[in-house]
Automatic annotation (TrEMBL):
Compositional bias of kind Polar residues: 15-25
InterPro entries the UniProt entry points to: Alkaline_phosphatase_core_sf, Phosphodiest/P_Trfase
This protein's GO CC annotations: vacuole
Presence of keyword Phosphoprotein: no
UniProt entry keywords in alphabetical sequence: Membrane, Transmembrane, Transmembrane helix
One GO MF term: hydrolase activity
Keyword Transmembrane: yes
Organism: Vicia faba (Broad bean)
UniProt-recorded name of the protein: Uncharacterized protein
Gene3D superfamilies, alphabetized: 3.30.1360.180, Alkaline Phosphatase, subunit A
Superkingdom to which the source organism belongs: Eukaryota
Length: 457
C-alpha cells in the first residue's frame, strides 16, 4: 500500500513537467530495477505490517465517558497565523498534542460568517444549505433573510444537531448560526440550546459547557458547540495587524485554557474531542483600495436597487428589461477599459460562469451577477470621501488571507500530527465518524475522516 502511494506521488511532478527532458519510455534495465524495488517494498511491507508496531498509534480508549463527546469551538475571523501573533500556550497545547491543518482550514465561498458556519455543521456548499450570504432576498416570495431569521424555510440541509436528534442522541449548542432553528427532530430544547446573545461573557459560555459534564454520564450531550465573536470583531474595526487583534487572540487563548482546565479538573480532558476552528480569515482594507460602480456609467448605469450586496461579495440582480448577460458584459468592458479607477481589481461573472471550484451557482437565491474583487479591495456605489481603514473577509476562498485554523484534539486524533489544508465541508463527516453515526448526504468526501483519524485499536 505504502509503495503504491509513493509511486503515485512520484508521477505527479512528471505530469506537470512538460517537455523538460526527452522521452520517458523506460529501458529494460530501468523496468527491471523498478520491478525489483517493488518486490523489495512488498517484502518489507509484509514484514512491517505483520509485526506488532509500537510506534503505530490507534484510537485511545475512553477512561471515564461511556461514549465519545465532541466540543466544536468557533473563534470568528481567526485568520490562519494568528496563533503565532503572541504566546498562545493553550491553543498550542491542543496543537502540539493534537492534529492541525498545517497551512490552515479553507473556508467556502463566499468567505462570510453565516455561509461558513452553516457549511461546517452541514457539510454542504452554500447553494445546497441555502445560506448563500449573511443577508439575501428570496426571489420568489421577496422575503428577506437576515442573521436573525430563525424560520426553518431558509435553513436547508441537515445540521449536526438534527442528525444527532435523528439518532436519539443529545446535542447542546452554545451559539452557532442555525442552531435556534427548529428542524426535524431538533426542537432547540431550552436546557441545551442557547439563544444568541452577544453580551454573554466568553467565560460564562465556557462555564455553561463545563456544567454539562456534571450531568449523569449517560446524559452528557455527545456534541456541543461553543462560539466566540472575537477576533473577527476587532479585525473588522482595525484590520488584522493591529495590536487590538493580538489582544483578542490572547483572550481567546485564555478562554480555551479555561475550558481545558475545567475538563482536566473533572477528569474528562483526555476523553473529550475538542475541534477548534474559525469560519474565515481577515485582510486589511484602506481608503484607496476602492472600486466605484458609478464609474461604470458610460458603459452601464448600475441602479442601486439592483445591488443585493456590495462588498467583498458583489451581487447584482438587474430588473426591468435589462438582461443580466448584457449588464455583465458592459460592466467588464468598463472595468477592463483602463479608464476606471482600480477597474482591473474587479471582474464580474454570470453566476453559472464563475470558476467551478467556488461552488456558487446552484441556487435561485444567488443573484445572477457575482463580482470577484481582489483581496483588500472594496466595492462602493460612489465616492463619499470617507477615510477609513479596517479589515474585511468574503473574498475568493483561494486567498491565503481568508484561511482559518483547524485543530483536532482527542482520543481519535494523533498527537503532533500535521495534515494538509482542506475545505470546511469535510468537518461534518469527520464529526459523524468520531461519533460513529451515519450522517446525511453532503459535499464532504467519505475518505476524509479515515485519512485524518486514528484507526481503531
Ligand atoms: C501530551 O500527551 C502526553 C501523553 O501522550 C501527556 O503526557 C502530556 O502531558 C500531554 N501534554 C499536554 C501539554 O497536554
Ligand atoms: C444577554 O446577556 C447579558 C449578560 O449576561 C444579560 O444581562 C442580558 O439580560 C441578556 N439579554 C437577553 C435578551 O437575554
Ligand atoms: C420593457 O420593454 C417593453 C417593450 O419594449 C416596454 O413596453 C416596457 O415599458 C419596458 N419596461 C421597462 C421597465 O422598461
Ligand atoms: C453537494 O451535495 C448535494 C447534496 O447531497 C448535492 O446535491 C450536490 O450535487 C453536491 N455538490 C457537489 C459539488 O458535490
Ligand atoms: Zn465570521
Amino acid at each position: 500500500m505504502e509503495s503504491k502511494k509513493q509511486d503515485e506521488d512520484v508521477e505527479e511532478p512528471l505530469l506537470t513537467n512538460t517537455g523538460s527532458s526527452s522521452s520517458h519510455k523506460p529501458s529494460l534495465i530501468q523496468s527491471l530495477i523498478s520491478a525489483m524495488s517493488l518486490i523489495t517494498a512488498i517484502t518489507f511491507a509484509v514484514l512491517f505490517f505483520s509485526l506488532p508496531s509500537p510506534t503505530k498509534s490507534t484510537t485511545r480508549p475512553l477512561r471515564k465517558l461511556p461514549h465519545p463527546v465532541v466540543i466544536l469551538i468557533s473563534s470568528d475571523g481567526f485568520r490562519f497565523g494568528y496563533q503565532f501573533k503572541t504566546l498562545t500556550p493553550n491553543i498550542h497545547r491542543l496543537i502540539n498534542n493534537g492534529t492541525e491543518a498545517q497551512t490552515g482550514l479553507i473556508p467556502v465561498f463566499p468567505t462570510l460568517t453565516f455561509p461558513n458556519h452553516y457549511s461546517i455543521v452541514t457539510g454542504l456548499y452554500p447553494p445546497h444549505h441555502g445560506i448563500i450570504n449573511n443577508f439575501f432576498t428570496d426571489p420568489i416570495t421577496g422575503d428577506k433573510f437576515t442573521m436573525a431569521s430563525h424560520e426553518s424555510k431558509w435553513w436547508l440541509g441537515q445540521p449536526l444537531w438534527e442528525t444527532l436528534a435523528n439518532h436519539g442522541l443529545t446535542a447542546a449548542t452554545y451559539f452557532w448560526p442555525g442552531s435556534e432553528v427548529k428542524k426535524g427532530l431538533w426542537t432547540c430544547p431550552e436546557q441545551f440550546c442557547k439563544h444568541y446573545n452577544g453580551s454573554v461573557d466568553f467565560e460564562d459560555r465556557v462555564d455553561s459547557v463545563l456544567e454539562y459534564f456534571d450531568l449523569p454520564l449517560h446524559d452528557i450531550p455527545v456534541f456541543m458547540t461553543l462560539y466566540f465573536e472575537d477576533p473577527d470583531h476587532q479585525g473588522h474595526r482595525v484590520g488584522p495587524d493591529d495590536d487590538e487583534v493580538t489582544d483578542a487572540v490572547s483572550r481567546i487563548d485564555s478562554v480555551i485554557g479555561r475550558l481545558i482546565n475545567g475538563l482536566e479538573q473533572k477528569g474528562f480532558f483526555e476523553d473529550v474531542t475538542i475541534i477548534m476552528v474559525g469560519d474565515h480569515g481577515m485582510v486589511g482594507t484602506c481608503d484607496q483600495k476602492l472600486v466605484f460602480l458609478d464609474d461604470l456609467a458610460p458603459w452601464v448605469k448600475i441602479q442601486q436597487s439592483w445591488v443585493h450586496s456590495y462588498t467583498p461579495l458583489l451581487a447584482i440582480w438587474p430588473t426591468g428589461n435589462y438582461s443580466s448577460r448584457d449588464v455583465a458584459v458592459k460592466m467588464n468592458q468598463g472595468l477592463s477599459s483602463g479608464q476606471v479607477e482600480n477597474g482591473n481589481k474587479l471582474k464580474v461573472f454570470l453566476k453559472e460562469d464563475l470558476p467551478w471550484r467556488l461552488h456558487y451557482a446552484d441556487s435561485d437565491r444567488i443573484p445572477p451577477i457575482i463580482g470577484l474583487v481582489h483581496e483588500g479591495y472594496k466595492v462602493e456605489m460612489s465616492r463619499t470621501g470617507k477615510k477609513e481603514c479596517g479589515g474585511a473577509h468574503g473574498y475568493d476562498n483561494a486567498y491565503f488571507s481568508m484561511r482559518t485554523i483547524f485543530i483536532g484534539h482527542g482520543p481519535q486524533f494523533a498527537r503532533g500530527k500535521k495534515i494538509p489544508s482542506f475545505e470546511n465541508v469535510e468537518i461534518y463527516n469527520l464529526i459523524t465518524s468520531i461519533l460513529n453515526i451515519k450522517g446525511a448526504p453532503n459535499n464532504g468526501s467519505d475518505a476524509f475522516p479515515k485519512s485524518v483519524l486514528l484507526p481503531n485499536a
